[in-house]
Amino acid sequence: MRKLLILLLAAAFIGAGTAYAFWLREMPVSHYLSDLGSTISEPGNAPGDTGNLLALNPALFPSDYQDPERLRLKLSSALDNARAQGLLTNDTLVALPEHIGTWLMLRNEKPEIYRARSLSEAQPLLILSNPVALLRTWLFSDKTLPLSDLILRMKARQAAADYQQLFSSLAAEYRVTLQAGSILLPEPSLKNGKLHTGYGALRNVGMVFKPDGTLASPLLALPWPVTTDSEQTTVQLGERHLLLTHQSTQLDVAGHRALAASFLQGRLWPLPLEQHTFQLTPDNDPRSQTVLVNRWLSEG
């Protein structure tokens, strides 16, 4: 009887292991249904004499990050609309919201994960679907880090590559200067023009790309959680160098009458922090359509 019980337990263990291995490899094809429409807020009638600031406020959901091409499709649809309205030129600065790149870590996950209402709800499935990545991250990282922090880090290398490739190619395709929002990464650095990650502290990283897709400014990597009320970076627009200030959801171009809101809409998960939750999308305005806010730049 004992031998039979051992055989049955071994068979059950092998069966469960086989099923788990099959589940890990399985990648069900899911249909992508999303509103690709966009509206332009206050496009203005008279172009400014020094270009324009175009703040893109995309309505994004976890499923938009299953493949970087999905995110690209949504952003491209909005930029196509702006181009049709004559709002994209060599003197256009397109600004994207903070953390637009953070959830690139959700690439190639199980469909059940995208239906979760929060990171804590998706956490068990993320652990089961990425055991090797999570273990490697734990081995090389600070052992006191919470599980939610490890999950944000475990696919950082691929997310960093996707972030740079996606937004660099968008800037080149539309021939605009692109301020690519930000992405949370551990110990980010630039090596030979490529964004790399390590196992140190998380940083909120932003990149700016020229109309040819190359980097327009040094890497902006701020502590996370952010300890300052505002961020500043210098971008080149045509022959001019402009100081762009990002304070909360507001973008301000110094020396020009240009102020625009830039934030994520839709319904992305809040980011977990030790003492509070950083809300990515406003609860009172979860709009499902992308909004572009245009501001013509004028001297003075």
What does this structure look like?
It is built from 7 helices and 19 strands. By secondary structure, the chain is an alpha+beta fold. Strands 1-19-2-4-5-10 form a 6-stranded mixed β-sheet. The protein has a 4-stranded antiparallel β-sheet with strand order 12-13-14-15, with no helix packed on it. It has a 3-stranded antiparallel β-sheet with strand order 6-9-11. Helix 2 packs parallel to helix 7 (156-174). It is globular and about 55 Å long.
Break the fold down into its secondary structure elements and pairings.
Blueprint: H1 2-25, E1 38-41, E2 52-57, E3 59-60, H2 68-84, E4 92-95, H3 111-114, H4 119-129, H5 131-140, H6 147-153, H7 156-174, E5 177-179, E6 183-186, E7 189-191, E8 194-196, E9 202-206, E10 208-209, E11 220-223, E12 230-237, E13 240-247, E14 250-253, E15 259-261, E16 265-266, E17 271-272, E18 277-278, E19 290-296
Parallel strand pairs: 1-19, 2-4, 3-16, 4-5
Antiparallel strand pairs: 2-19, 5-10, 6-9, 7-8, 9-11, 12-13, 13-14, 14-15, 17-18
Helix pairs in contact: 2-7
